Amino acid sequence: MATQMTSDDLVGIFRDTIVALVRRDGVDLSARQLGVFLTCYLNEGAHTVRGLAGQLNVSKPAITRALDRLSDLDLARRKVDPTDRRSVLVQRTTKGSAFLREIRSVMGEMIASGRNSTETAPRRPAAAG
Fold first, then answer.
1. What does the alpha-carbon distance between residue 109 and residue 17 come to, in Å, rounded to a whole number?
2. Which residues, in sequence order, are CB contacts of 16 under 8 Å at separation 6+?
């Protein structure tokens, strides 16, 4: 019988996943960049700057900056919409799909191991000040 996860469990898995991603060699995304990335990869259909801004309730320039970074890392690609040249479509990339698989793998490991956020990372000593 499966056990129900609490919100604390989910937050712990989220934290552990972020910590694992930050510790490894590879891309390091801000919360906004990660939000844009996951929205593009987990939600089916075409994505535009305007649509992403609406979905995430942030400005179009903020989406553009996040996409600049995702494009630099080859996690997403922009393409002019052939039906409306004023609009830009956001496309997935092979590298972005691999990154999503990595995120899923890390989260799966956290769930399978039954870890919680207090078990995964040793605490750093507080800075003197």
1. 9
2. 106, 110, 115, 116, 117, 120, 121
Percent of the chain with pLDDT over 90: 53
Structure token digits, residue 86: 């004023």
Q: pTM of the prediction?
A: 0.80
Q: What is the pLDDT of residue 50?
A: 93
Residue pair 40/90 in contact (Cβ under 8 Å)? The answer is yes
- Which tens digit of pLDDT belongs to each residue from 39-70? 999 999 889 999 999 999 999 999 999 999 99
Buried b / exposed e over 55-73, threshold 16 CB at 10 Å, is eeebeeeebebbbebbeeb
pLDDT of residue 2: 56
Q: What is the dihedral of CA 59, 60, 65, 66, to 10 degrees?
A: 80
Q: Which residue has the tokens 């800075």?
A: 127
| Position 51, amino acid | G
Sign of the Cα pseudo-torsion (123, 19, 10, 69, in order)? positive
